[in-house]
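Structural prep section.
Before we set up the soaks we want a predicted structure of the protein with NAP in place, mainly to decide which crystallisation condition to try first. Input record follows.
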Amino acid sequence: MTQDFAGRTALVTGGNSGIGRAVAGLLADRGARVVISGRDAARGDKAVEEIRAAGGTADFVQADLADLDSVRSLAARSIELGGGHVDVLINNAGIFPFGPTAEVPVSDFDEVYAVNVRAPFYLVAELAPLMAARGHGAIVNLTTMVASFGLAGMAAYGSSKAALQLLTKAWAAEFGPAGVRVNAVSPGPTRTEGTAVLGENLDGLAGTTPLQRVGRPDEVAEGIVFLASDAASLIHGAVLPIDGGRLAV
Ligand code: NAP
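Run finished without errors. Recording the tokens verbatim:
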């Protein structure tokens, strides 16, 4: 395994579960000092223990991304843990309550936008200027295939990720000239702790893709880590579908 992230600090939000956990492990394997965030400290500590046992460097920082003060504290603590810098930001944490538009409580709507849009926005506001001042950095945002087409029951979720997709391009324009690359990954149905509640519906959704099966977190993580690495040096403002081909058909 290459050590191409040696000397770099990476913040992975939601790194204690699913896709984020896979990304944290892969970045640590490749030499990054990884900061994992989430609300569930037990899951966070377990992820840190596993990464350390495999020879990696990781810390867990508890943060509720629905709360702006918590978002800002997370950024500050990550900079501290990184010895003054965060080189990679993976905006992975997200929530996806589904349901008919007429039945979405205002509290759910607000929470979706707080966690999926406002938190990445202010993490970037805190961290990207520091990356820009050092002349390098990489940010990868997690969106979804349903940010690109309409699916009944996913209006609030899909629209929040569509906002994040546009932010990816806006930030590429804003921070790219200073050496900070901002990209996004758009996963299709992927089996995680978070999607377990969907049961067979996840398989049904995967059945609409050319691949015709549900993805694994490690398959999505590979694309995310590629975009965060120097191997993607020419890639700015891109949205990479990792969805078994769903957006192609
Ligand atoms: P998951 O297993 O449910 O994990 C979500 C992560 O986000 C958890 O680590 C959770 O940590 C964290 N999180 C949620 N709310 C939070 C909050 N208020 N404050 C802090 N952390 C919070 O999800 P996943 O399936 O791996 O999805 C990861 C990302 O990929 C999400 O952005 C999702 O929208 C996107 N995505 C997933 C799929 C899929 O099929 N799995 C498809 C397309 C896109 P705590 O619970 O500890 O807070």
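Observations: The chain has a mean pLDDT of 98.
Flagged for discussion at group meeting.
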